[in-house]
Amino acid sequence: MSECNEARAIPIADAMQALPLPQPPRDGWPLVRARLHRRRRQRVVFALAASIALAGVLGVMTSRWQMPDEPPATVAVSAPSTDPALQALQHESRELEALLAWSGEPWVDTGDSALIDHELNARLQQVDLLLASTALDDDTRLLLWSERVHLLRQRSELAGARLLLADGEHSAGDVLLTL
Do 113 and 162 meet the contact criterion of CB atoms below 8 Å apart? Predict the structure, then answer.
């Protein structure tokens, strides 16, 4: 028996070389190629979307830097008023304008808040144009000044909500719902 075992004995290196090499399945490489192609397509779509968003942000930023779209919100009063209610509204209007100037550019701005701010500013400009008219009676002037103060209050609340959003407060979005 020992002669049989000796006759069959081969060196281990030769036995390893005689083993067949593992072959990958035939359909494995096309699956890998398809997966890589999908990933490449997803990266191209993501890069395209990111570049469009960046172009939009840069367009908005450069338009703000080149020419301001908001004229100063102050209204020139032709003659000092003796009505205490009108003087109180004018004083509050100045304080709210100072508060808005202090809040500066929004650090966090959502589409909703930008739209609301734009609409409020457009209405404020209309009120300012009406206030610039010299042919207003005292009741109309008082009504327009109260509307102006109301609009400035809403803009200051919106500016406060933007500051809260920039600070990380999640409840600041509730302020936008109330405006």
Answer: yes
